[in-house]
């Protein structure tokens, strides 16, 4: 009898292996779809009938087997639906196997009762293992009642119940954990299959994105070597895939941009993401502006990192930005330029004097200002006309502009009308006097005729010079006032002279 019970348990466990393979794509759990629960319920019912076919003949009308474990496992994993289906099929099978009689009707009712009770217990919120153990005990209790009602010989009853409890509890424990293993294995395989499908879909999406993207997508190892290049490389930098594979990025980057690009590559490896704009040497021999987004990817297999770079050609945008910047710079220069003479205007004079005054205040250095205008310029315009007057202003302005070297740091401006000003930062009075004499001499050398002048046959200048060391109590306007006063003094002294604030 022991051998027969062990064979019954072995058949139960072996059947679980077959069921796991057959329904590997339809795992059984409480949230399985209804069709899946129906499939499993039918299968457990068939298993219960197979176990009955290999049952132990206790007496001419009494058989013992482990069919109730099929109902217990169905209820523990799938709930009441597969449990009731299995119980119903086992009940029908018992009647078909032995015919409709009291000997078959009682076990059939017992099977249905086990199915109902196990289905109810499946809804209790306790661990599944504990549920299965309780269901097994309930099934054994119902079977024990049936054996007690049918077996009169106490010794036979004792032996049957002892073996039945021993094999059912031990076999049930093994069968339960084996079915757990089958279910978990199927779920793991299903998850692996889904993961592989997702990986394949991801790879396909990446391939489509990489192949049809207008941006260039590249992958690099930690040495910046190319290990993947998308087809857009030919359109953007005109290289073919094999021409870049295995080569390092810096071989193609402008020397002025290599350091910054390497820093951004290292940042991507360290922080995960970075952005960079640089010049790249295309196959045509010309540098193109590239804008790249860098992102590092960690490979679990070997612990290495890769950097994926998405790049686009922004040369046209750079050129547009450059032209816009140049246009803005030109507008800025024009806003500070006198339209007639081409030198700096009054606005630029005011801002520059303010700046130079502040710097001189900090350094405790002197600042000189020369102011001058053309003698009898109104009479010049009346005699020669305004167009000739404009040409006269232009000639004087250009001559004095060429006189002042760029390295001097001096600022030459048209102050207004025929009046001009020259700012000399860090210049003492003696330097101002020398410069004033050079200006006077330069204008005389132009020999611009002025028949209406009362002091010379050529155009002359009246010049005023003032020098100050800025202090917190003084303002730039004080320097202007002193220079203007000296200019007025030159005019009252007969013009064509230089007056200096002593």
Overview of this protein structure:
- The chain is an alpha+beta fold and 502 residues long.
- The protein has three domains: 2-190, Arp2/3 complex 21 kDa subunit ARPC3, CATH 1.10.1760; 213-319, PAS domain (Beta-Lactamase, 2-Layer Sandwich); 336-500, 2-Layer Sandwich (Alpha-Beta Plaits).
- The chain has 16 helices and twelve strands.
- The chain has a five-stranded antiparallel sheet, sandwiched between helices.
- A hairpin with a 2-residue loop joins strand 9 (411-416) and strand 10.
- The longest helix is centred in the middle third of the chain and has 59 residues, at 154-212.
- It is rod-shaped.
Summed up, what is this model?
The chain has 502 residues and is an alpha+beta fold.
Low-pLDDT windows of residues: none
Which fold name corresponds to the CATH topology of the largest domain?
A: Arp2/3 complex 21 kDa subunit ARPC3
Please indicate the percent range of residues in DSSP E strands (runs of 2 or more): 15-25%
Q: What is the general shape?
A: rod-shaped
* Strands, count: 12
EC number: 2.7.7.65
Domain GGDEF: 365-502
Domain PAC: 274-326
Subcellular location: Cell membrane
């Amino acid at each position: 009898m022991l051998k027969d019970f062990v064979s019954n348990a072995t058949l139960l466990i072996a059947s679980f292996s077959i069921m796991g393979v057959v329904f590997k794509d339809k795992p059984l759990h409480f949230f399985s779809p209804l069709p899946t629960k129906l499939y499993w319920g039918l299968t457990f019912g068939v298993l219960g009938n197979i176990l009955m076919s290999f049952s132990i003949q206790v007496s001419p009308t009494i058989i013992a087997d482990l069919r109730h474990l099929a109902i217990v496992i169905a209820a523990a994993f799938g709930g009441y639906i597969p449990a009731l289906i299995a119980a119903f099929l086992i009940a029908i099978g018992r009647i078909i196997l032995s015919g409709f009689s009291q000997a078959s009707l009682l076990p059939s009712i017992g099977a249905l009762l086990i199915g109902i009770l196990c289905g109810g217990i499946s809804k209790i919120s306790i661990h599944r293992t504990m549920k299965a153990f309780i269901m097994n005990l309930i099934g054994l209790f119902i079977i024990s009642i049936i054996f007690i009602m049918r077996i009169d010989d106490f010794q036979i009853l004792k032996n049957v119940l002892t073996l039945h409890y021993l094999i059912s509890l031990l076999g049930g424990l093994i069968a339960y954990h084996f079915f757990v293993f089958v279910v978990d294995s199927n779920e793991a395989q299903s998850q692996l299959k889904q993961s592989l499908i997702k990986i394949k879909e991801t790879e396909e999406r990446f391939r489509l994105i990489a192949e049809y993207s207008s941006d260039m997508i590249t992958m690099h190892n930690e040495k910046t070597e190319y290990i993947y290049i998308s087809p857009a490389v030919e359109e953007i930098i005109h290289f073919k895939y094999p021409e870049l594979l295995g080569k390092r990025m810096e071989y193609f980057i402008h020397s002025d941009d290599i350091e910054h690009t390497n820093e951004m590559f290292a940042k991507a490896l360290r922080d995960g993401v970075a952005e960079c704009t640089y010049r790249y040497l295309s196959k045509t021999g010309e540098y193109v502006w590239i804008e790249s987004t860098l992102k590092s990817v960690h490979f679990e297999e070997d612990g290495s990192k890769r950097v994926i770079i998405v790049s686009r050609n922004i040369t046209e945008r750079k050129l547009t930005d450059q032209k816009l910047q140049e246009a803005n710079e030109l507008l800025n220069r024009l806003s500070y330029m006198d339209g007639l003479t081409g030198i700096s205007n009054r606005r630029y004079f005011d801002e520059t004097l303010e700046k130079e005054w502040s710097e001189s205040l900090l350094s405790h250095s002197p600042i000189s200002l020369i102011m001058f205008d053309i003698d009898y310029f109104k009479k010049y315009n009346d005699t020669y006309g305004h167009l000739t007057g404009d040409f006269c202003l232009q000639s004087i302005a250009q001559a004095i502009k060429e006189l002042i070297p760029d390295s001097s740091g001096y600022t030459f401006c048209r102050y207004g009308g025929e009046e001009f000003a020259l700012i000399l930062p860090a210049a003492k009075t003696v330097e101002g006097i020398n410069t004033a004499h050079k200006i006077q001499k330069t204008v005389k050398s132009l020999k611009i005729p002025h028949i209406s002048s009362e002091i010379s046959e050529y155009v002359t200048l009246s010049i005023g010079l003032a020098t100050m060391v800025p202090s917190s109590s003084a303002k730039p306007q004080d320097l202007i006032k002193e220079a203007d006063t000296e200019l007025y003094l030159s005019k009252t002294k007969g013009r064509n002279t230089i007056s200096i604030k002593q």
